[in-house]
């Protein structure tokens, strides 16, 4: 029986390992770009930065210390230089894939930080596995700029899991839709026509403003923005404005809002403020060939017929009046039911002339 050589005895004193095997090791040295482990084999194991993490800016000395125990996977028993090439990242990714498979099958809600913004969506990492969330699944409404999500912690579910194709898709939208539906249900249960509620302007269009009432949007139509006229909502309201609004109507999931509160209705005191015989002041708001409409108060327009502008003949109101001009006239007719008021400037001229005649006679 031949004696074993020193090298043979040395080899037999260490365990044997194979490519793909999972082993444990103790960190014996750490450099910024590599980790050296004692894995109980005749050669030490090495983990490069690329095989530890996808983060190339990572300094390995900040995450691993000498003496730490690590579970790793063997990539190559001999890397060509007598060392064992190990990977930590791939083993973590395998565990991560199993974790995500369970999350996918159980519809589990995951939470992770957004690590990358792409043209078509955002990326996050769960247990070393990259999860891509397409732009269409990031929010429950269209968002052109996704940069605000960078570094933000978000919740999502896995909607597609195919590790063989390296395709793991996340979905944040369905969570937001479900949350919104729950908020809508709660809000509609306690919301009634006639209620006064607070909301935030979410969007402004040419025809009105959409107001977020706390998970449900209501429409504040241009005709309900004021008792007076609003020509351009975008000049009156801005995204983020806080408003106190009146619930005018509720139909299914649609809510109509108003800023025309009954107590501020300018016609409430019309019988007193615009009684026949009262002298009033207003601004010419618009003109037609048959007369001028004078705004006496927001929401209260009166007609000054062309025949009532002056004792002298006037062909068209625009011959003697202009938009925005302030005029003084007498109320000659009031119809509260139809919200119509008729004015006369000529009546004031007549009153002045009658007064002058009386003075002359005296």
- The CATH architecture of the largest domain comes to Beta Barrel
Range of helix content: 10-25%
User: How much is the radius of gyration in Å?
Assistant: 40 Å
Mean pLDDT reading: 88
- What is the count of structural domains? 4
| Poorly predicted runs of 5 or more residues | none
Q: What's the CATH C level of the largest domain?
A: Mainly Beta
Shape: rod-shaped
**DSSP summary: helix tally:** 6
Q: What is the CATH H-level superfamily of the largest domain?
A: Nucleic acid-binding proteins
How many strands, what sense, and barrel or not for the largest sheet? 5 strands, mixed, barrel
Strand arrangement in the largest pleated sheet: 1-2-3-5-4
């Amino acid at each position: 029986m031949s004696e074993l050589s020193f090298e043979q005895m040395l080899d037999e004193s260490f365990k044997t390992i194979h490519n793909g095997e999972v082993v444990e090791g103790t960190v014996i040295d750490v450099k910024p770009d590599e980790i050296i482990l004692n894995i109980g084999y005749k050669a030490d194991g090495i983990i490069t930065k690329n095989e530890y993490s996808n983060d190339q800016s990572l300094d390995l000395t900040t995450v691993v210390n000498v003496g730490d125990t690590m579970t790793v996977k063997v990539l190559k028993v001999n890397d060509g230089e007598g060392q064992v090439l190990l990977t930590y990242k791939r083993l973590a990714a395998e565990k991560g894939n199993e974790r995500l498979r369970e999350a996918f099958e159980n519809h589990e809600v995951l939470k992770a930080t957004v690590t990358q913004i792409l043209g078509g969506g955002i990326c996050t990492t769960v247990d070393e596995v990259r999860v891509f969330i397409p732009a269409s699944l990031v929010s429950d409404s269209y968002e052109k700029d996704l940069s605000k999500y960078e570094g933000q912690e978000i919740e999502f579910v896995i909607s597609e899991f195919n590790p063989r194709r390296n395709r793991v898709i996340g979905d944040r939208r369905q969570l937001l839709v479900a949350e919104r539906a729950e908020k809508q249900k709660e809000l509609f249960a306690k919301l009634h026509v006639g209620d006064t509620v607070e909301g935030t302007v979410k969007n402004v269009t040419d025809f009105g403003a959409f107001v977020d009432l706390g998970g449900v949007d209501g429409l504040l139509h241009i005709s309900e923005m004021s008792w007076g006229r609003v020509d351009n909502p975008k000049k009156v309201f801005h995204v983020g404005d806080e408003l106190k609004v009146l619930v005018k109507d509720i139909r299914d999931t649609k809510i109509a809002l108003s800023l025309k509160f009954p107590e501020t209705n300018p016609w409430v005191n019309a019988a007193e403020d615009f009684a026949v015989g009262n002298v009033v002041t207003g601004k010419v708001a618009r003109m037609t060939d048959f007369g001028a409409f004078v705004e006496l108060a927001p929401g209260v327009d009166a007609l000054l017929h062309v025949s009532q502008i002056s004792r002298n003949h006037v062909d068209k109101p625009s011959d003697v009046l202009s938009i925005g001009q302030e005029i003084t006239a007498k109320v000659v007719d009031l119809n509260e039911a139809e919200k119509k008021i008729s004015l006369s400037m000529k009546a004031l001229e007549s009153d002045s002339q009658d007064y002058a005649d009386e003075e002359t006679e005296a």
